[in-house]
C-alpha cells in the first residue's frame, strides 16, 4: 500500500516538473490524443507588424515592420492588409507670418526655412521697408513723413512719389497774406498793407476778390455847431477844410 502511494506521488511530481520546463512562449493543450504545443503569440493579422514573444516575460509584442521610405520629408503609411507603404511628400507650412521663407526639405531635419528679407515693394504707396517683425510681419514707414511743419506731404498713387504742398496756402481773400510759423506750424493771415498814399482826402478799402484798393472820398465831418462851414477836402491844405461862417 505504501509503495502504491509513493508511485502515485512520483507520477504527479514528474508531471509538475515537466510542466515547469515548458516554454513560456507556448500554449499547451491536451486532449485524448495527447498534449500539443502551440505558439502563445501567433502572427497578428495586421501585416504592418511582426508579432513576437518575449522569452523572459512571455508577453506578446507587435513590432512595426521597417519602413524603407521613412524620412522627415515624406509621410509614409503602411497598409495593414498587405504591409505595403504609400508615400506622400511633406507639405512645408507657410511661415511668412514669422518672417520665414521656405528653403526646401532635408530628409533628416525636415522643412527648412530662412529669414525672409523680401517684404513686398510698396514704393508705389510711398512706403519704405523697415524690416520684418516675427509677430507683426513686414513693417513699413511712410516716405512722406516730414520734419517741416509748414509743408504737407501726400503720396501720389500714380507713382510720382511724395507730393509736397504748403500747409498755409494763399486764401481766396486777396486782402490777406498767408504765412506759416516755421516753429509752430501755425498759419498766420495778415491784412495786406495799405499802399502809401499822399491822397489824404481818400479812404482806401481793399476788395477781397481782387486785392485792389479803391479810393472813396472821405466825408468831412460837419462842424456847423462850431460856426465852421465845410468847404471840402483839400490835400494841399491838409485835409478837410472849413471857413468861418
Ligand atoms: C487534439 O488536439 C489536436 C490539436 O489541437 C487536434 O489536431 C486533434 O484532432 C485533437 N484530437 C481530438 C480527439 O480531439
Ligand atoms: C521698388 O520698386 C521701385 C519701382 O516700382 C523701384 O524703383 C525700387 O528700386 C524698388 N525697390 C526695391 C527695394 O526693390
Ligand atoms: C475810412 O474807412 C474806414 C473803414 O471803412 C473808417 O473806419 C474810417 O473812418 C474812414 N476814414 C475816413 C477818414 O473816412
From TrEMBL:
Lineage, uppermost ranks: Eukaryota, Amoebozoa, Evosea, Eumycetozoa, Dictyostelia
Annotated signal sequence range: 1-18
Highest taxon above the source species: Eukaryota
Keywords: Signal
Protein name: Dickkopf N-terminal cysteine-rich domain-containing protein
Amino acid at each position: 500500500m505504501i509503495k502504491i502511494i509513493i508511485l502515485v506521488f512520483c507520477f504527479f511530481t514528474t508531471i509538475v516538473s515537466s510542466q515547469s520546463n515548458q516554454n513560456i512562449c507556448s500554449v499547451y493543450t491536451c486532449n485524448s490524443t495527447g498534449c500539443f504545443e502551440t505558439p502563445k503569440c501567433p502572427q497578428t493579422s495586421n501585416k504592418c507588424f511582426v508579432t513576437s514573444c518575449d522569452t523572459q516575460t512571455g508577453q506578446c509584442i507587435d513590432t512595426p515592420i521597417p519602413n524603407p521610405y521613412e524620412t522627415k520629408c515624406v509621410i509614409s503609411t503602411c497598409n495593414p492588409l498587405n504591409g505595403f507603404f504609400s508615400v506622400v511628400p511633406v507639405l512645408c507650412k507657410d511661415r511668412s507670418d514669422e518672417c520665414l521663407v521656405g528653403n526646401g526639405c532635408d530628409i533628416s531635419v525636415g522643412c527648412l526655412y530662412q529669414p525672409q528679407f523680401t517684404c513686398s515693394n510698396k514704393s508705389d504707396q510711398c512706403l519704405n521697408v523697415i524690416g520684418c517683425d516675427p509677430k507683426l510681419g513686414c513693417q513699413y514707414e511712410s516716405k512722406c513723413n516730414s520734419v517741416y511743419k509748414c509743408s504737407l506731404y501726400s503720396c501720389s498713387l500714380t507713382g510720382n512719389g511724395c507730393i509736397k504742398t504748403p500747409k498755409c496756402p494763399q486764401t481766396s481773400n486777396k486782402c490777406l497774406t498767408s504765412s506759416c510759423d516755421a516753429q509752430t506750424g501755425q498759419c498766420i493771415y495778415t491784412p495786406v498793407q495799405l499802399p502809401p498814399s499822399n491822397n489824404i482826402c481818400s479812404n482806401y478799402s481793399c476788395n477781397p476778390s481782387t486785392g485792389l484798393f479803391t479810393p472813396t472820398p472821405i466825408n468831412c465831418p460837419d462842424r456847423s455847431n462850431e460856426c465852421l462851414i465845410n468847404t471840402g477836402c483839400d490835400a494841399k491844405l491838409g485835409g478837410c477844410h472849413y471857413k468861418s461862417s
